[in-house]
Write a structure and sequence with these properties.
Layout (H helix, E strand, L loop, with lengths): L18 E14 L2 E7 L4 E7 L5 H8 L6 E10 L7 E12 L13 H6 L1 H4 L3 H23 L3 E2 L5 E2 L11 E4 L2 E5 L4 H11 L1 E9 L12 E10 L3 H22 L1 H7 L3 H5 L6 E4 H9 L1 H33 L4 H36 L9 H9 L5 E4 L18 H4 L9 E6 L4 E8 L4 H10 L8 H5 L8 E7 H9 L20
Parallel strand pairs: 3-5, 6-10, 12-13
Antiparallel strand pairs: 1-2, 1-4, 2-3, 4-5, 7-9, 8-9, 10-11, 11-16, 13-14, 14-15, 15-16
Helix pairs in contact: 4-6, 4-7, 4-16, 10-11
Bound molecules: 4-amino-1,4-dioxobutan-2-aminium adenosine-5'-monophosphate and magnesium ion.
Length: 512
């Protein structure tokens, strides 16, 4: 049975030649004559264990042979270095003990459709891909805390049940709060602003909720957001903070998760380029880029690329289907079936891209100053850059009530003065991943803020305490929010953010 004399797979290094016991689950196995290759996972890694007939008791050899995927067991054996083996070490098995056998585990090493995997997320969490993403996410969360803790910020836990609207009245989760209406928080920002007037530099980090009616790959209804807020800061200061922060997080992931990134097929070389300074565009410049011929050419080239990708996938599918019609061994038939599932889902995705490309091109060409940037607009700008891009100074009318309008006081930082725009920014991750940060300088003038609250149809009474901050020693201040799942998706190259949280919540379903 497992006990504290067991060794973790991650600790096999330095134990070559020693006999150790691993405790874990059977990830995969195959037999070849008198040798069985068992891949064991124990939460710290994978290890190939080789059981040879005659070197383990006969009844153990026999039990292992019929052991189902995900059975729990301990395996004892001698460690040997083996470069070609997963993890770099192997175990020459001398004994094993089955803890709990598993029969017909539903998720086989073959490919499955995403709906099936989401319904089985409680089990799918054990897969190599989910494990790698979970490890990267852990580092991201750790790096976030480390960065702010080491840079003079104080953690403030802001409430989840709130009475005021922080971002957008259209995406509130209402809660019956003892007969009164409250809702789940969309942002900790407003409470954090109070704390910034006490502690100077603060951050909150917790789950946030948006009843988003969109089913995009970028939206969850429950997601984690870290929000720093700083007293006495301007837009330039916020951009600098954000680029240093994101570069630190990326650096930590590169340092601690290289092998996970490799397994996930992430673009490590492009992540190594994530160093300050990031690109800076004003919204007005971004709008000009969207409408430019360069963008139309870029999208046309992309369309051609998608079309040729589609042809290649179709060709490969045809070849595999033909091969499957002939007489193939069972293992090959399984492999073909798995590849076909992957290829068909790729084909569908490429088809959607081909369909969307002209729509996105039209949206970009007809982009009008004054609109918020849409998802496809962000994707285009983000695809055209190899490092994150700050887009600053959006039209006031398109943005939240608390954002400070540009004024001569900030003209230097914003590049010009124009009270039609606010001193805000979004950070777009490169390679098409889009917005990962939204932030701004906050309106610190009592009258101006009250006017924005009224203009947006919010109930000013509810904002009494928020307005008080502008009455008693108001100072220029600002902050931003970074979404954890979107960041993890970017770093791991995962297309859909639902894969970047253990138990995703989306508009159409709460799976588990
Ligand atoms: O741009 P947002 O809405 O900004 C705020 O909430 C500000 N109050 C933050 C601040 O200034 N303190 O959201 C910030 C980030 C986005 O850039 C995105 O990464 C993430 O939160 N986000 C979502 N992530 C997943 N699903 C959703 N539905 C998200 N909505 C926002
Ligand atoms: Mg935003």
């Amino acid at each position: 049975m497992p006990n504290n004399t067991n060794t973790y797979i991650a600790e096999l290094k330095g134990k070559t030649g020693q006999e150790v016991t691993l405790a874990g689950w059977l990830y995969n196995s195959r037999a070849s004559g008198k040798i069985q290759f068992l891949i064991i996972r124990d939460g710290t890694g994978l290890c190939q264990c080789i059981a040879e007939y005659g070197k383990v008791p006969d009844e153990v050899f026999d039990k292992l042979k019929h052991l189902g995927q995900e059975s729990s067991l301990t395996v004892t054996g001698v460690v040997r270095a083996e470069e070609r083996s997963v993890g770099g070490f192997e175990l020459a098995v001398t004994g094993a003990e089955i803890i709990s056998p598993a029969v017909d585990y539903p998720i086989t090493p073959k490919a499955h459709g995403i709906d099936f995997l989401l319904k089985n997320r409680h089990l799918h969490l054990r897969s190599q891909r989910q494990w790698c993403i979970g490890k990267v996410r852990h580092t991201v969360v750790d790096a976030i805390r480390r960065f702010f803790n080491d840079n003079g910020f104080t953690l403030i836990d802001t409430p989840i049940l709130t009475g005021i609207i922080g971002e957008d009245a259209g995406s509130l989760f209402e809660v019956d709060y003892f007969g009164e209406s409250a809702h789940l928080t969309q942002t900790g920002q407003l409470h954090l602003e109070c704390a910034a007037m006490s502690f100077g530099r603060v951050y909150c980090f917790g789950p946030t909720f948006r009843a988003e009616k969109s089913k995009t790959r970028r939206h969850l209804t429950e997601f984690w957001m870290v929000e720093p807020e700083v007293a006495f800061i301007d837009l330039a200061g916020l951009l600098e903070l954000a680029e240093n922060f994101v570069s630190f997080v990326v650096g930590q992931v590169l340092e601690k998760n290289e092998s996970e990134l490799k397994t996930l097929g992430a673009n490590i070389e492009s992540l190594k380029k994530i160093q300050p300074p990031f690109y800076r565009l004003t919204y007005t410049e971004a709008a000009e880029i969207l409408k430019s011929k360069k963008t139309q050419d870029f999208l046309a080239a992309q369309l051609n690329e998608f079309k040729s990708q589609k042809q290649q996938i179709e060709k490969k599918i045809g070849e595999l289907e033909n091969e499957a019609k002939g007489s193939v061994k069972q293992w090959r038939a399984d492999k073909i079936a798995a590849e076909l599932i992957e290829l068909r889902s790729e084909l569908e995705e490429t088809g959607t891209k081909i369909e969307n490309n002209p729509k996105h091109a039209k949206l970009a060409a007809e982009f009008e100053w004054g609109k918020d940037l849409g998802g496809s607009d962000e994707t285009i700008i983000s695809l055209m850059h190899n490092k994150p891009v700050f887009v600053t100074c959006y039209p006031k009318e398109a943005k939240a009530f608390y954002m400070k309008a540009d004024s001569p006081r900030f003209a230097g930082e914003a590049g010009r003065s124009n009270d039609k725009v606010v001193l805000n920014f979004d950070m777009l991750a490169p390679a098409g991943f889009g917005e990962i940060i939204g932030g701004s300088v906050r309106e610190d003038d009592y009258e101006m803020l009250l006017e924005r609250i009224n203009k947006q149809g919010l109930n000013a009474e509810n904002y009494d305490w928020y307005l008080d901050l502008r009455k008693y020693g108001s100072v220029p201040h600002g902050g931003f929010g970074l979404g954890v799942e979107r960041t993890v998706a970017w770093l791991t190259g995962e297309k859909h953010i639902r894969q970047c949280i253990a138990f995703p919540r989306m508009m159409d379903k709460i799976y588990i």
